[in-house]
Amino acid sequence: MNILLVNSNRLKHPWPVIPFGLCSVAAALEAAGHNVVFLDLCFSKKPDRQIRLAFNEFKPDFVGIGIRNIDNASGYNTIFFLDQIKAEVIEPLKSEFEGPIVIGGSAVGISGAEMLHFFDLQLAIQGDGEQAIVELSARLEKNRPLNGLGGLILRQNGEIIEENPPLMVTDLNTLPSINFNRYLKVRRYRKYSSPLQIQTKRGCALRCVYCTYNRLEGSTYRVKDPLCVAREIETLVNETGIRHIEFTDSTFNIPLEHTKAVLRAVAAKGLNLKCRALGMNPAAVDEELVKLMKRIGFQDVDLGVESGCNQTLLSLGKNFRKEDVLKAGQLLQQENIPTSWFLLLGAPGETEETLHESFETIGKAASPWDLVVIGVGIRVYKGAPLAKAFVATDGDRISDNFLRPVHFEPKALDIETIRGITKQAYHRYPNFLIVNEKSQYPEMILKAASTVMRWFFPHQPIWRVYIFVRKVLKALGVD
Which CATH superfamily is domain 2-163 in? Predict the structure, then answer.
């Protein structure tokens, strides 16, 4: 079959994200013998024109669209992305093509049925996409019924008639390798210092009340062979010339022993990498781990602490406590690994006292040159444990099953009060950054900052420019 895959993500903050998931789907389809054309709209100024040109040059039998984010995940001043995607991607595609269109990606894994209604489409795949879309293409090609296909959400006559659980890839080592140059103009991503995304596993066994990873990838870990991970990184570095590696597991360092085995395998390759990791968990940070991270070239990490108060950590369903936060900070500073600390304010039971305790804890645990990223308010998503509690108390605020942004507010504080207390802490600490709509920087600034850092501070994360500027302004008495 002729299959057109479309990357709809056009965000570039803090850098354009290489569409790893959709490229993996493309590789799986080509391995199954299909003819795939990849349309990357990330850098498009006129996506409708690119879509029209793609259909003039290629006559697909069906179209797959990757949708990464519903919104910016901020509980305060949330920016909803789907209106723009509908206007600039979905509607132009529908005007050019009357055949089957299937949507997939992490956003669809959260609210696939609701997105089918929103876009007025019939087909969606939730969860792992590689095996599901290969099976879908086989059924479409042979005109076989779609009923019972794992991961498929089917809408007919305005109604969801089937919503099947994800078709999980049980052995990640069997997935075909990805040649990013085959699908993307990699040089465009290199201009922004975009990292290559690497998964060492899928799934998450943790139970954070706001999180949807259990829904997206399952609640058990499916790990890759560490040697396979190391070979994948080596191949991708050689093919793309990109040595900036971002580990994108839901929680990078759990299971801890598997993470260490991956790091040892990568270290043995001697690749001179610049690495970072999303979602490190303070409960699984020890001396051996941070030394291995330093050894392979970790130059920054994201530490998802969410709070520095035990009462709040408990209400968020976290598996660690304040002591773990302080210990993790100490170990990362010992190895001089720059860290972005993430706070999520407005948890169930949050009070002024718990907020002040969190700021005090992070003030001690984080280096003055570490970035503290603060989210004010918790965005409630379908399938998260917090959504069930929200329905029980504030169900009248929900009209579309959490597709459009809904935020949780603790009983003791409203969002504006939380924001006011947070701004006081922001003025005190130059390394604090409050996430809202004003934290988006013009594309020209991102390119310029990336160039400056690459030439003059190649071993420093780009966000240290922000801290430096704030410290200078603070010294000058300018806020």
Answer: Cobalamin-binding domain (3.40.50.280)
